[in-house]
Structure formats: structure tokens, C-alpha cells
Amino acid sequence: MAAVSVPKGSLLVLFCLACRLLRAADATGQAEKGPLLPHRRFEYKYSFKGPHLVQADGSVPFWAHTGNAIPSADQIRITPSLKSQRGSVWTKNKSIFEYWEIEVTFRVTGRGRVGADGLAVWFTEGQGLDGPVFGAADNWNGVGIFFDSFDNDAKKNNPAVVIVGNNGKLNYDHQNDGSTQALASCQRDFRNKPYPVRAKIIYYQKILHVLINNGFTPDRDDYEFCAKVENMVLPSQGYFGISAATGGLADDHDVLSFLTFQLTEPGKVAPAPDTEIPEKDKEKYQEEFEHFQQELDKKKEEFQKEHPDVEGQIADDLFESVSDRELRQIFEGQNRIHLEIKQLNRQLDMILDEQRRYVSMVSEEISKRGTGVPGQQGQVSLQGFDTVVKTQEEVLRQVGEIRNSMGETLRLVSGVQHPGSAGAIYETTQHFNDIKEHLHVVKRDIEHLVQRNMPSNEKPKCPELPPFPSCLSTTHFFMFVAVQTVLFIGYIMYRSQQEAAAKKFF
């Protein structure tokens, strides 16, 4: 075969072409894998969660509450179940990130079949502290996710989740439940659920997703898709808030947690969090620390006055360490095993007594039958009784072995001093397995006891009944028949005479 010469320039072109193909293949593979997930960072200044939610002065750190909102240690009641109530909570600081994700856990409860008015989650350019739109201001610039529980337009499409965007110029359409302004919506019943309802709202790359956990399961990650809005432009910085309102009907609107996360595109550096705390917050935190320190000192002095004998000592015995708790649990388990083995030992003693009585009765029966008439019908053969005796002796032997095994197990359990001894636990387990096997053998022997008592070639026969003596002879029988015949003929003749005498009167 002749060799083919290729110019060097052509080789370079082929090499470059191959590199482009490899890059294209890598890009195609990356596209098939899907887009990269964003970086997710928790933002504590835009979040709240129990159980220590409220400070000493009744405020929520980094949040402002207005209207009828009532903060407590584990939740914020935005509105109580009273008529014509409004309330809201808003972050004190604007967000400094473009894309975000929030997880809201809330509970809407009421006595009525229908509730009102509803609850709203906000991201707006300004704080809507009070207003007619679910307790917040109208003409907002941003987005509101409304959990509307009252059917104003009578279309029977509530409770519903409605997404409404606003550029600061639109008035909310109350009469139509915002249907003319809704960007997306879904029907979800979020009232009176056994578990708190969870909503996850994600705004990333100008796409808004709303996911709902319907409150029928305690699983926090059990979300289902509700609505999606594409090409949505929101302010680059804004306030997060949550509000609620009641009307003629009323519900309790409770928010258990509001968690905010910053989303950053892959490859971009997230902005550094604030490292310096404002002076006002520093002074406030210092005052609170000093107040708690003073209360702790007072409680220490009171305790020392009430317990002078333990002054200067640390009451470590009031607390239980992890190793002590494990040791206590192991010893309690061994005590329970000890009691169970004692109970089994007593039961085995009872079984032994019963077996001995049974063997003695069988032996007495054998001695009695040995003196009787041999070959009598229905009598159990001596060979069968010997089999019974042997079987009972075997049972007694096995029960004795079980008793000895249980005694050995009891001794081992009582003698174990350190609960971490793996050898003692293994031996105890082995003895329990032996006990189980012996009990199965006893059960099997007792089940086949009757079959082993009788030889296979003999079957039990019922004794024949003795002849029943007859008390009526043949002579008496014929005399009885003759008397009955005479009486019957006499009765017929008497009836004929009576009928003939009756006919003479006609």
C-alpha cells in the first residue's frame, strides 16, 4: 500500500477542528446535565423563628410590627380572630441582594366554614406598614403573594394563592379578588390544617416560583408546585414583609417562621455580610447582657441562702452525663432480663412438677394393668405405657437441661458488672437461643405424645356393650294383641248399635 503524504498546514487545521468539536461536545453535555444551582446563604437579618423570638421590650430583632400584630416567644399573630383587624411585620433594613428565596411557615385557623380576609407575603421597594390590601399599603412597587381565603367575586375559587405585581401605579381590585391583575394563581386550601402550612417563594434570574406544603404532613420538604411567573422584574433592593387582615369574618393568622436566603449565580462572588454592628445595637445588646448577668447573680445568691451546706460546691450530681445515662439504661435492661429469667425458672419448676405427677400416675396405671387380665379388649398394651414412660423421662431430662441453662444465664446476668462487656452479652444471647431451641423440642414432644403412646399396628377400639335383657316374652305379646283385637271389635259393635237406635227417631 502506498503512503499518503499530508501537508503540515492541513494537520494544523484538522487539530483545531478537533478541539472545537471537543468543546462543543462538552457544552452539549453540560446543557444536558441542566443549569447549575445557585449558591444559597442564610440571611439572619431578614428572618425570624421561635422559640426565643421576642426580646424583653416586646420587639422582634431586625423586624418592625404594626397594627394588631402580637409577637410572642414562638410565633407572631398577625391578626387575631376578631372582626376588622389589620397587622403586619416588615424588615427594618433593605435587602442588598438581587435574587432571594424565602420560606414562610404559617397557620390560618378559624371556627367558621369560611374565613376572611387572608394573608400576604411581600417584597416591595418601601414598607407598606398599613393599608387596605390584606393589612398593607396599596400602590406598592414590587410583588405580593396573597393567600386569599374569602370569595369576593362569588366564583367559588377560594381559598387561593394569587401573585400580583405592581409598579406603584395600580390599585388592587378587591371585588374580583385580584383576578384581573393576577400574574399567576392556584387554588389551595390552607385553613385549619393539622400541620402548619409552608410556602417557598424563589426569585432567581427574573423567574418567580411559588411552592406550597399543604399542611397534611409533618415533612418539611414535601412541596408541590403552585405558580410560576417568568420575565418578572423586581426592585434590586427592597423590604420583606408579611401582613393579614380580617373583615366581617375572622381567622387567626399566625406566622411561625420567616426564613430568607440569598441566591447568587455560580461564578459570581457573593457580597460580604456586614461585619460591623451599629453602635445602637451594640449598646442595646450590652444592656441586655448586663441585665441577664444581674439576674443570674441574684438567683445564685438566693440559692446559696437556701442551701448553705452546698455553698462553694458545684452540683454536678443534679445532671446526668451521656455515659451515665447509657450505663443506667443498660443496668435497667439487665434487671428486666433478670426478672424475666426468674419468671421462666418458676414456670419450668411448675412444668417439672406436672411431669413428675404424670409419670407417677402412668407408673401406677402400668402396675395395676399388669395384674389384670391380659388381652382384654380396649386395654392399652404394656409396650405403649413403656413408650409413654420413656417419653416423659425424655421430657423431664430436657426440662432439666432448660432449667440448668436458665440458671447459668441467670448467674451470668447477675455477675455482669460492666455493661460494655461484649462477651457477656454474647453468652447471654447464646443461652437465650438454647432456651428457645429446648422449648421448641418440648413443644414438639408434647404434640406427638399421643401418637408415640400407641403402637402403629394397633388402633383403639371401643368396648362392646353388654346384651340388654328383654322383659317381654312371646306369650305375653300374643295375649296383648288378642285383647286389643277384642276391644276393637266390641267398640265397632257398640258404635253400630248406637247409630241404629238413633235412626228410629226419624
From TrEMBL:
Localization in the cell: Endoplasmic reticulum-Golgi intermediate compartment membrane
Out of the domains of life, which is the source? Eukaryota
Q: Which InterPro entries match?
A: ConA-like_dom_sf, Intracellular_Lectin-GPT, Lectin_leg
Going by the UniProt record, its keywords in alphabetical order are: Disulfide bond, Lectin, Membrane, Signal, Transmembrane, Transmembrane helix
A single Gene Ontology CC term:
COPII-coated ER to Golgi transport vesicle
Primary location class? endoplasmic reticulum
Occurrences of domain L-type lectin-like (ranges): 40-263
Q: Which PROSITE patterns match?
A: L_LECTIN_LIKE (PS51328)
Keyword Ubl conjugation assigned to the entry: answer is: no
User: What are the BP-aspect GO terms?
Assistant: endoplasmic reticulum to Golgi vesicle-mediated transport
Instruction: Give the transmembrane ranges.
Output: 477-494
Instruction: Give the signal peptide range.
Output: 1-24
Gene Ontology MF annotations = D-mannose binding
Q: How does it sit in the membrane?
A: Single-pass type I membrane protein
Identify the PANTHER family for this entry: LECTIN, MANNOSE BINDING 1 LIKE, VESICULAR MANNOSE-BINDING LECTIN
Name of the featured protein: Protein ERGIC-53 isoform X1
Species for this entry: Eublepharis macularius
